[in-house]
C-alpha cells in the first residue's frame, strides 16, 4: 500500500524534526520534504507529490494564510489537504483559514499521536468520498452557496461554524438533537475552540441576518416560508434544520431529473 505523503512547513526547526521523526516511524506515512518559511513551502509543493501539508500559520516571508491562498489558486495544488498548526487560538484567523480550504486545526503544543490520528482520518475521508456526477455541484458547493445566499458575511466566525454544522447534520441527522453534547463539541474540535464560542458565533451570525429586515423577505423566498413565520429569530438548531431541509429538497429534486 502506498504511504501517505506528508510535507511540513514550520519555522520551528526543532518541532519540524520531532514531527518528521514521529511520522516517518508510522508504517503508512512518509515525510517527503520540509520547509521553514512560506515561500519555500510553495516551491517545495510544486516539486513534490503531497497528500497532506502540515502548515504553521505564523512563518517568515509568507504566512500560512498566504500559502493557503496560493494553493487555492493553483489547480495542481488545491487538492492537498492542509492541517494548520498554531500557537495562537485566534478564531478570526482560523475562520479565514477554513474559508481558504484548511481541513483541520491543531493548537501547539500537541501530542504527536493526535497528529497521526488526524492525518489518517483525513485520508480515510478522502478515500470514502465519491465524486459527484459531472456537471453537478458538490455538497460543499451547495452549502457555501446557500449560506452566502442567505446573507451571512464570510468574515464572521459563525460563517465557517455554520457551514460545518450543516455538513455534519446532512451526514448525521441525529446530531441535530444533540447540539450541545455532540454538534458544538465536534465543530469546536475541528477549529480548536470551545463549544460555547461555537454556539455564540453561530447565534451572532444568525442575528446579523435577522437584524436586516429586508433580508427576511429574501430568506422567506429561499426556504418557502411566509414572512410572518420568520418574524421571530430562530434558534441555532432551528436555523440549521431549515437550511438542511432546503438543501435536501434541492438535492432530491435534482436526482429526480
TrEMBL record:
Its cofactor is Ca(2+). Keywords: Activator, Calcium, Cytoplasm, DNA-binding, Metal-binding, Phosphoprotein, Repressor, Sporulation, Transcription, Transcription regulation, Two-component regulatory system. The keyword Calcium applies. Residues 5-123 form the Response regulatory domain. SUPFAM superfamilies: C-terminal effector domain of the bipartite response regulators, CheY-like. May play the central regulatory role in sporulation. It may be an element of the effector pathway responsible for the activation of sporulation genes in response to nutritional stress. Spo0A may act in concert with spo0H (a sigma factor) to control the expression of some genes that are critical to the sporulation process. May play the central regulatory role in sporulation. It may be an element of the effector pathway responsible for the activation of sporulation genes in response to nutritional stress. Spo0A may act in concert with Spo0H (a sigma factor) to control the expression of some genes that are critical to the sporulation process. Repressor of abrB, activator of the spoIIa operon. Binds the DNA sequence 5'-TGNCGAA-3' (0A box). The lineage of its organism: Bacteria, Bacillati, Bacillota, Bacilli, Bacillales. Pfam families: Response_reg, Spo0A_C. InterPro entries: Bact_response_regulator, CheY-like_superfamily, Sig_transdc_resp-reg_C-effctor, Sig_transdc_resp-reg_receiver, Spo0A_C, Spore_0_A, WH-like_DNA-bd_sf. PROSITE patterns: RESPONSE_REGULATORY. This is Stage 0 sporulation protein A homolog. It comes from Planococcus wigleyi. It is found in: Cytoplasm. Binds 1 Ca(2+) ion per subunit. The modification 4-aspartylphosphate is found at residue 56. Its main location: cytoplasm.
Amino acid at each position: 500500500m502506498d504511504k501517505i505523503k506528508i510535507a511540513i512547513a514550520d519555522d520551528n526547526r526543532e518541532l519540524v524534526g520531532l514531527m518528521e521523526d514521529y511520522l516517518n516511524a508510522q508504517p503508512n506515512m512518509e515525510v517527503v520534504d520540509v520547509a521553514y518559511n512560506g515561500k519555500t513551502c510553495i516551491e517545495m509543493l510544486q516539486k513534490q507529490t503531497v497528500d497532506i501539508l502540515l502548515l504553521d500559520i505564523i512563518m517568515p516571508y509568507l504566512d500560512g494564510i498566504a500559502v493557503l491562498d496560493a494553493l487555492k489558486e493553483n489547480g495542481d495544488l488545491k487538492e492537498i489537504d492542509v492541517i494548520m498548526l498554531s500557537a495562537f487560538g485566534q478564531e478570526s484567523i482560523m475562520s479565514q483559514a477554513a474559508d481558504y480550504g484548511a481541513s483541520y486545526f491543531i493548537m501547539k503544543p500537541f501530542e504527536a499521536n493526535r497528529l497521526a490520528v488526524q492525518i489518517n482520518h483525513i485520508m480515510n475521508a478522502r478515500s470514502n468520498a465519491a465524486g459527484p456526477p459531472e456537471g453537478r455541484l458538490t455538497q460543499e458547493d451547495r452549502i457555501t452557496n446557500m449560506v452566502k445566499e442567505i446573507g451571512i458575511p464570510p468574515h464572521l466566525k459563525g460563517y465557517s461554524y455554520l457551514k460545518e454544522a450543516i455538513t455534519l447534520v446532512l451526514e448525521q441527522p441525529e446530531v441535530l438533537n444533540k447540539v450541545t453534547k455532540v454538534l458544538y463539541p465536534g465543530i469546536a474540535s475541528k477549529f480548536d475552540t470551545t463549544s460555547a464560542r461555537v454556539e455564540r458565533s453561530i447565534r451572532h451570525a444568525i442575528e446579523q441576518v435577522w437584524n436586516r429586515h429586508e433580508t427576511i423577505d429574501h430568506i422567506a423566498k429561499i426556504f418557502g416560508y411566509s414572512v410572518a413565520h420568520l418574524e421571530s429569530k430562530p434558534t441555532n438548531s432551528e436555523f440549521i434544520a431549515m437550511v438542511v431541509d432546503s438543501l435536501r429538497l434541492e438535492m432530491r429534486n435534482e436526482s429526480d431529473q
